[in-house]
Amino acid sequence: KDKRIATSDFLTRTVDTQLKHFNRTVKGSGKNGKIFIDHPGQEILERTSVVINDKEIEIRIEVGLPAAGRKILGKAASHTII
């Protein structure tokens, strides 16, 4: 269990760092087109942002979809996701 916690924490930190670099290149306002993962603190903790089980690793991220006011722009959002 300790190895999974440490690996999950390490992967969260690595993905967070890479996404920060990626988000600097994304144009747009607010969170439009940007991708985020739960920002890790100083401690090594059991995380829900990266879940490791016997057969797979699941990384949970948040994607900022393009919008006009409070409405998601569906066609533009499909380009962001794909």
Low-confidence stretches: none
Q: Round the Cα radius of gyration to an integer and report it.
A: 15 Å
Please state roughly what percent of the residues sit in beta strands, choosing from under 5%, 5-15%, 15-25%, 25-35%, 35-45% or over 45%: 15-25%
Order of helices and strands: HEEEEEEH
Which structural class fits the helix and strand makeup?
alpha+beta
* Helical proportion, percent range: 25-40%
Tell me the number of helical segments per DSSP (H or I, 4 or more residues long). 2
Distance between the termini: 34 Å
Task: Please state the average pLDDT score.
Answer: 87
Q: How many strands, which pairing sense, and closed or not: the largest β-sheet?
A: 2 strands, antiparallel
Model description:
The chain has 82 residues and is an alpha+beta fold. The protein has helices spanning 2-25, 74-81, and strands at 35-36, 50-52, 57-59, 62-63, 67-68, 71-72. The strands form three sheets. It has a two-stranded antiparallel ribbon with strand order 1-4. A hairpin with a 2-residue loop joins strand 5 and strand 6. The longest helix is centred in the N-terminal third of the chain and has 24 residues, at 2-25. The protein starts with a helix and ends with a helix. The mean pLDDT is 87.
